Amino acid sequence: MTKEYITNGTGETEELGCRLGRVLEPGAVVAYTGDLGAGKTAFTRGIAQGLEIPEQVTSPTFTIVNEYEGGRLPLFHFDMYRLGSSEELFDIGWDDYLARGGVCAVEWSENVEDALDDDAIRVEIRRGDQDDQRRITIINAPDL
Fold first, then answer.
1. Of 74, 103, 120, 131, which one has the fewest beta carbons inside 10 Å?
2. Taking CA 107 as the corner, what is the angle to CA 130 and CA 91, rounded to the nearest 5 degrees?
């Protein structure tokens, strides 16, 4: 199922992510595409809120993955921008993260597309008509 949303401002983008976070199940993979600064990390902050994670989510740009625990499910927030292939993803323990029963949120998922299952939730975030507007397409998502 494909659904499209328009958000106006970071708060609405986070709220949409929160709605998704509330219904995610163990082992869920959320695969993002979208330009730099489109709102992928804001959406992930919302997922963390929906998972009741108390920590502040930040971009894992320089660490590849940030781990957040203490919520309903753990959240593993990946940034694949600097990875050259999915082989590098497996080298950092992708299978281990999947086996831990948390939620894997994957920014720049197109860089590791062949490592993702067909049932991954796909989130495409694009800029809208105004500066703070975003067009968000979600594929394979449960009802929000």
1. 131
2. 165
